Fold this sequence. Notes:
Oligomer: single chain
Number of domains: 2
CATH class of the largest domain: Mainly Beta
Distance between the termini: 72 Å
Largest sheet: 8 strands, antiparallel, barrel
Structural class: mainly beta
Shape: elongated
Order of helices and strands: HEEEEEEEEEEE
Number of strands: 11
Strand order of the largest sheet: 1-2-3-6-7-9-10-11
Strand content: over 45%
Amino acid sequence: xxxxxxxxxxxxxxxxxxxxxxxxxxxxxxxxxxxxxxxxxxxxxxxxxxxxxxxxxxxxxxxxxxxxxxxxxxxxxxxxxxxxxxxxxxxxxxxxxxxxxxxxxxxxxxxxxxxxxxxxxxxxxxxxxxxxxxxxxxxxxxxxxxxxxxxxxxxxxxxxxxxxxxxxxxxxxxxxxxxxxxxxxxxxxxxxxxxxxxxxxxxxxxxxxxxxxxxxxxxxxxxxxxxxxxxxxxxxxxxxx
Length: 241
């Protein structure tokens, strides 16, 4: 078979192969351009997920002072986050950061008291003879959330199973108590010994736009040696509209 093709024939065959390859490549590129043009264009905001997150929480403590009862079902708080994210690969894993606001509200049967001489704060239960409609401690923070997000591929309706694990750091904007017995209503501000910075672990598990959320503070309610060691935490429903 050696010497069957002349140099000119060999050149023609090579040219024909290159021409067929180029025509095939042109067809694929043209088809891809048409396909991409038919897809709706997404803005940078729309192409990312979970940009706005709203958590409606039940707030609690890991421990309560003696005689103090925390009314969990009335102790409701809120957490709002606006985030951006860096997606990796196809977008099933992403790193997110942002800014947020959180409010924790703790309803108890006790009065918040401050001991100026000892520079400590705590709670003293109300006597049974005192009736009231509302008695709570409110803490409001400006937060910086950081998250590592994991997602499955979207189903036919565009919903995904989503898991987010992260960390949150916040600065105390306001701390106050509120009391209302039906006749007298008052708020107390400038509470001493409350920790100015809080930080802790966050978690969120959801499907589509609804999920459950968790926050566990790694800082105590009071500054060290200025009150009972109490670690707040929150469990709630999470919405990503």
